[in-house]
Design brief:
heterodimer, A: 61 residues, mainly alpha, 3 helices, B: 791 residues, alpha+beta, Alpha-Beta Plaits, 5 domains, 7-stranded mixed sheet, 6-stranded antiparallel sheet, 45% helix, 17% strand
Chain lengths: 61, 791
């Protein structure tokens, strides 16, 4: 067995792996809406701020 | 007085804002929404965007049908045990605040476990516990915070929508194969005759062969199918030479590696299909939030209240309405069937149907037509027909609605492809014959090489990239086009037909002229102030037209529904309304809408309303008249004839009193005489004409809400740009013709290599992507320049 077979099969396996991940991602529907997630990820901050606010209130109570 | 804008919805608060927590609100509805958010720690809503809200509407009883099992079944996409999932369309979704509040619905109702917004489609997908809450309460919650879901008859029929992602898969397969095959073919291009490479050559080649299999048999299958269909219909479409090229590439490459003649053209093959699919993908610009396929079903309610013989009210599905049923129409509800008014004062707004915003009053016993919207309290009516047989809905049984406009239209690519295919086959046969005499061993080689290099990848890419890019540019300019073939058709039109009401007139404002005795100052003040108190659309319009006056408190104010207003202040006693109500003795029948005024029982005069035309109408018509035949096709009477004559160029044809079918037939007749018709309309009554025309453009004040089925939707604010859009479509055709020239240039270079028998895989591998990329660059740059000029 020459090393070239190993190298090639490794490269093809990696390629196939990425391809499968891509297909799974499309299947899950994450390319159907390409705008909302970009806004949604910015909301995390507001939610955390709110949580800290409420926890502060409970402390002062 | 300083006017403030509402903290919640941004509307003008008028003179009496409601103040709450130092914030002003235009109405109690907005204040209530703020209170709800405030109590639930959701005021972040207002931090993300200024005044993002909408005024919650009166919805009493409107969603009662949502407690019905069979309707819930249709509207939910998942139901099991105690979990239900429903996707609701909410037209108001417009900013990041909307996303935020809708995705935090669980704070308002803990039984909602998850809610996810799709901004593009303006939908929210709600998952809730159906034991503790139900669809109706979710919808009511949404409505109470100003996000009223829009549920129409359309939702009832469509069922679960299937998203077609096949093109993305095909593109993925092609990209994967293209990338890997390129790497595998590099060694042979650069390291010729090296010992260890020589040894593994077959392995590399068969690996490439294996990878090309899914590309040819999966990714490229559409081209084979389309070519087969084309040949069957005796049309040489662009897919014929493509399919020919792909099969020759694949067969020759396979034979080459089988007999160890050469390395084959697998990289060119994969690249070719990859580029073609990218072009297809690029052209597929869709506007998720718009629908070009709407018919009456999108306008009609899903259920209606029926009164049975015992006087009980039940929600029934609209399709179940039978002749003779008593039905109840609430304020702001749409009349789904033709019928007779039994009870109540009807004020019907037929703007969906005709585009005319002025309401029509009906008395008990009058006939009501489907498609009107009741605007004045509750009415009872008796159905005369079922939904599908109503006057308006019958229009949709016409054949035009089942016809696909793209059929029977040869696009520019296929026109050129016919000549191209014949030319290439001729070249191939001549070259082969020549080589049969000179060196017969090379003849087959040359024949296949010609077919390979001439594979019209660049030609096939010209139109998708030009149109795809132009679709995006138009979209940014608020001109939303259904698909690329519409641009081509738009470039060919020679007749432009306009609807009148709502299309060249604006719904927002009309003009009124006063005719009669002059009113005294005190009368003027009373007039203005009594109009202020009335919600009738004509009062609102007249109120905004009249000059600003002092605010006074009226001593007495009474609105007689369907007749007019009676108001008293000090010594002035005024009546405003219909001629009979005011007491006009000599009322002649006029075509225009009028409002009459009397003071202390003395008849004073009348306000006559005229349509107000969109800004730039006259200029647009003057631009268009040089190149197109112009027609106004109106469903209205001739009341505006004189005004239109003054406004529009003399050669414009003006045709009035056209029923929806008449409009359709008019267009059909002109098409049979060779006219390519562009129809511009807005109401459902234009739906037939829009479908029949070569290009139907629906004009819309608010593109998110209502427009009938059409090929393109134009935002009303861009109406005066129409001429420029047509010019841009014509330029796009020019760009495509130029890119054909560029690709012919590459083809000639390629044919030189092919006919002389020197086509090496490496030449094909360079030439084919190079031509494709230069076409893409050329069309993109050219269309962007075109877009710059549009701005």
């Amino acid at each position: 067995m020459s090393v070239i077979y190993i190298l090639l099969s490794v490269s093809v396996v990696i390629g196939v792996a990425f391809f499968v991940i891509f297909i799974m991602a499309v299947k899950s529907g994450q390319y159907d809406d390409d705008y909302t997630p970009s806004v949604r990820m910015l909301f995390e901050d507001e939610l955390i701020k709110e949580q800290t606010n409420t926890s502060k209130q409970t402390k002062t109570d | 007085m300083e006017s403030k804008t509402c903290f919640h919805c941004g509307d003008d608060c008028g003179n009496h804002p409601i103040t709450f927590q130092d914030k002003s609100f235009c109405c109690n509805g907005c204040k209530t929404v703020f209170e709800i958010f405030n109590e639930n720690d959701l005021t972040c809503y207002y931090d993300l965007q200024n005044s993002p809200g909408a005024i919650p509407k009166e919805i009493e009883g409107k969603f009662d049908f949502l407690s019905q099992e069979n309707i819930i079944e249709k509207l939910t996409e998942f139901r099991a045990d105690s979990v239900e999932i429903a996707t609701l369309y909410i037209p108001h979704i417009h900013c990041s605040s909307c996303i935020w509040i809708l995705e935090n619905l669980n704070k308002l109702n803990p039984n909602i476990s998850d809610s996810q917004v799709n901004f593009g489609k303006k939908t929210v997908r709600v998952t809730y516990n159906s034991d503790a809450t139900d669809l109706k309460s979710v919808v009511l919650l949404l409505s109470s915070i100003g996000y009223e879901p829009y549920i129409s008859l359309d939702d009832f029929n469509s069922g679960k929508k299937h998203i077609n992602r096949a093109l993305i898969y095909k593109l993925g397969v092609a990209a994967f194969g293209f990338g890997n095959i390129m790497f595998l073919s590099f060694p042979e291009y650069f390291e010729v005759n090296e010992f260890w490479l020589e040894q593994y050559k077959p392995f590399f080649r068969w690996l490439m062969f294996a990878m090309s299999l899914p590309i040819v048999f999966y990714s490229a299958q559409d081209y084979f199918i389309s070519a087969y269909k084309g040949l069957k219909a005796k049309i040489l479409n662009i897919d014929v030479p493509i399919a020919l090229g792909v099969s020759v590439l694949f067969i020759r490459s396979t034979i080459e590696i089988m007999f160890d003649i050469g390395s084959g053209f697998f990289d060119s093959l994969a690249g070719l299909i990859f580029f073609l699919l990218v072009g297809k993908f690029f052209q597929q610009k869709t506007y998720d939030f718009l629908s070009f396929e709407r018919d009456y079903k999108s306008y009609f309610p899903i259920a209606i209240t029926k009164i049975d013989k015992e006087g009980n009210e039940n929600s029934i599905q609209v399709y179940d309405i039978e002749k003779g049923d008593r039905i109840l129409i609430r304020n702001e509800e749409l009349i789904p069937v033709d019928g007779i008014l039994i009870n109540g004062k009807a004020k019907i707004d037929y703007s969906f149907v005709t585009g005319e915003s002025q309401t029509v009053s009906k008395q008990s016993g009058d006939k009501l037509f489907a498609g009107g919207k009741q605007t004045n309290g509750v009415i009872e009516m008796e159905a005369l027909k079922s939904v599908e047989q109503s006057y308006l809905t019958q229009l949709w049984s016409n054949d035009v609605f089942n016809k696909n406009k793209e059929d029977g239209f040869t696009n520019i690519t296929n026109t050129i492809s016919k000549h191209f295919t014949i030319a290439i086959l001729t070249v191939a046969f001549i070259a082969t014959t020549f080589w049969l005499f000179v060196d017969s061993s090379k003849a087959m080689n040359v024949f296949t090489a010609v077919l390979i290099i001439a594979c019209p990848c660049a030609i096939a890419l010209s139109a998708p990239f030009t149109f795809g890019n132009l679709l995006r540019i138009f979209g940014k300019q608020k001109f939303y086009i259904k698909n690329a073939s519409v641009i081509e058709q738009l470039a060919q039109i020679n007749t432009v037909i306009f609807d009148k009401t709502g299309t060249i007139t604006s719904n927002k404002n009309s003009n009124a002229e006063y005719d009669g005795e002059l009113l005294s100052d005190s009368e003027h003040i009373v007039l203005k102030n009594s109009l202020r108190g009335s919600n009738h659309p004509l009062s609102r319009t007249l109120y905004t037209i009249l000059k600003e006056n002092n605010i006074i408190t009226l001593d007495a104010f009474e609105e007689h529904i369907g007749k007019g207003i009676e108001a008293k202040h000090e010594s002035v006693n005024m009546k405003i309304g219909s001629a009979s109500f005011v007491g006009n003795p000599n009322e002649s029948t006029v075509l225009n809408t009028t409002v009459h005024v009397s003071s202390n029982n003395v008849y004073k005069g009348k306000f006559t309303f005229y349509n107000s035309y969109r800004k730039g109408v006259s200029k647009l018509f003057n631009q268009l008249k040089r190149h197109f035949d112009l027609v106004i096709l109106s469903g209205d009477n001739e009341g505006e004839l004189e005004n239109l004559k003054k406004l529009l160029p003399a050669k414009t044809k003006l045709i009035f009193n056209q029923k929806p079918e008449d409009k359709l037939e008019f267009i059909k007749y002109h098409q049979s005489e060779g006219a390519k018709v562009l129809m511009i309309g807005d109401g459902l009554n234009d739906a037939g004409a829009l479908a029949q025309s070569d290009v139907g453009i629906a004009i819309s004040e608010d593109v998110n809400v209502f427009s009938p089925a059409c090929d393109a939707i134009l935002d009303a604010s861009k109406f005066k740009q129409l001429y420029n859009y047509i010019l841009a479509s014509k330029s796009a055709i020019k760009i495509i013709k130029w890119s054909f020239v560029v690709s012919f240039f590459y083809n000639i270079i390629g044919l030189y290599f092919a006919t002389t028998g020197q086509l090496e895989p490496v030449v094909a591998a360079i030439l084919m992507p190079l031509s494709s990329i230069s076409i893409v660059v050329f069309t993109t740059v050219a269309t962007n320049l075109l877009g710059k000029r549009l701005e």
